[in-house]
Structure formats: structure tokens, C-alpha cells
Hints:
Helix content is 32%, strand content 23%. It is α+β, with helices and mostly antiparallel strands. A hairpin with a 5-residue loop joins strand 15 and strand 16 (330-331). The longest helix is centred in the middle third of the chain and has 21 residues, at 110-130.
Amino acid sequence: MRAPIELRMHDTHIGIWQASAHDPSFRDEVYGGLIRLMRARGWTIGQDPHTRRHYACLSPNHRLGRKGDLRCSIQLAGRSITVEVWAETWPLVHSNGHRYDFDKLQRMTYLDRLRFLLERRHIAAWLRTIAPVTGAEPPRKPLPPMDTIAREYRTSWHKDKAIGRPVCTDDRNRTSADGALLEHGQTVWMRDRSGRWIRGQAFYRINNVWFMVAGSDLHYPGCFQLYAKAPADPREKRNARLARERLEAEHRKAVANHRYRRAEILHRLICEGTAVWRIWSRKNDAWYRTGCAGYTTDRSTAGLYTRAEAEAEVRRVPHNLEAHGPDGAVFRVEAARHAEAEHAA
């Protein structure tokens, strides 16, 4: 019988861990055996073309597979094997592909979800035939927030054994956004992703990361995102960035569908009636996306900026950026400084 193996499973991730990092049989018996098992169950397993092309020495440790609509990657790294499963049937969210979407199990079709759960059970059952296995299948339904926190405290290596939970010993890791020192279990406020205020209880996790329980939701904010004092206007909403992203998405959609009147109205809302500018990164050979977040090589999907916004960003990173405006206008910091010097002379 082999050394004990630990199974770590979350969403469509299956982690196979062995205590010994220097066991030469782990590759042949577990990694190789897993591939043989999956092939016997109808999976087509082969090389990862990207790894083979760019990292040939790592190629034997990386495999890709498919079975029907399901796709998988298998990676060996020291004493661990990682299996990740996804499908390509749901609407793409992550720009790099379905493989990188979150909540893959939830996004799968009903039948694909059942197929994955069946494959996971077969892998776990096979591992138990070759070694003692610890770890269990994750619960079908997420745990309540307080139970999730309690479970993490039980397994944490950073807890104070006397009280059974981690203790913050550095004031920098418990200083809130409004300068107060946070206490374990106190009431705090935070803005959610939509810019609205939410209220909940804060519990220390690790470093400057805290748990925040707000009703049935569990958040993992940094201390710098939490406020100890209640906001002056709890109904205030700050979502300018989200609104801008939505407006630009609607503008691109209107142009693509030849709805130019709607595109003109959206343009006035985005750039306040001024000319549209775009930002080009010479370093990445790509355009800035909306809100200076991300890149694209397609000019039609580039972010839209006013001249003032574009110039401010170019001046921030002058050695990499330039701004492109209407009628071929280009703004570069070097050219602007030269013109200013000539004007001063």
C-alpha cells in the first residue's frame, strides 16, 4: 500500500496530494495510473500544445483531455496532481476561455454536471484502491458563512491554539479605511461590487484579510476596504466605473448593429460631447480597454476617453503610452514637451 494521499476538491478542481515529495513511484503509479483510468473511461488524453511549444521540458507533466462536451487538464507538480474540468457550452465570461471561468460546476449543463460528479467519484474510488485517502467530497450546497469560518479556523495553521482562531498582532493589518483599529467580531461597513454600502460583522482571517459576514453572504475584504463608522448616507451608490463600462459596451453594440443614432447619444454620455480618444500601449502593442483595465488589439473594442483622461494616463506612463484622437491626432509626452519648450523660447 502506498503512502497516504489527501484529496482536495473544490468546484471542478481535484487536487491529489502525497506527503512525500521524493517518491519516484508517484509519477508512474498515480499520475500515469490516473491517465490510464480516464482513458479507460472514455477520455481522450494527449499533450498540451501550448506547454509543448513553449515549455517542452514540462510537457510530460501536462496533459489535456476531452470526453463529449467536457474538457480537462491534468498537471503533475512534485507531490501533487491537479485535475481541472470544464465545458465549453456556457456563455463565455473570461476573455481567455471557459477554462478560466469561476463557478464552472454551476455553469455546466445539468447532464455535464452529473457526468463530472460521476468522474470525480470514480477517481476517488480508484485512489482508495491504491492508498489510504483522506478528504471528502465537498458539500453539494455551500455552508452558512459562520460554518465556513469555523471550518477554516479548524484547519488553519496560523491560529492561536489557546483560543482556536488566528489573532492579529500587527496594527497595520487591522487598520480600517477610516483609520480605526478593527476588533474581531465588530460591526463594519463596506462597499460591494455594485458600489452600495453593506453592513456586517468582521472576523480576522490572516495578514490584512478579514471575513465579513453580511446576512447570508461571506466576503473576504482587506482591512483597508472596511469602515468602522457608519456612512453618512448609507443609500449612496458609487458605481461610476461600472456605469462607464456598461455605456461603452452598449456603444460598441450600437455601432456593430448600425444603430448610429443610439451610438451618438451614448457617445455624448461617455465623453460629454467631446471628441473620442483612445490609448495605445507601445509596450504591449495593444489598445487600453475601458477604465485603463486590460488590453485589446481590436481598435473597435478599445476604451473610449476624453482628451483630458487620455493625456493624464499618457503623462503617467510616458515611456509606454500614446493617445490617439480624431483626424489622426496623436499625443506623446516627448512631442508635447518639445512643443512647450519651443513655445517658451
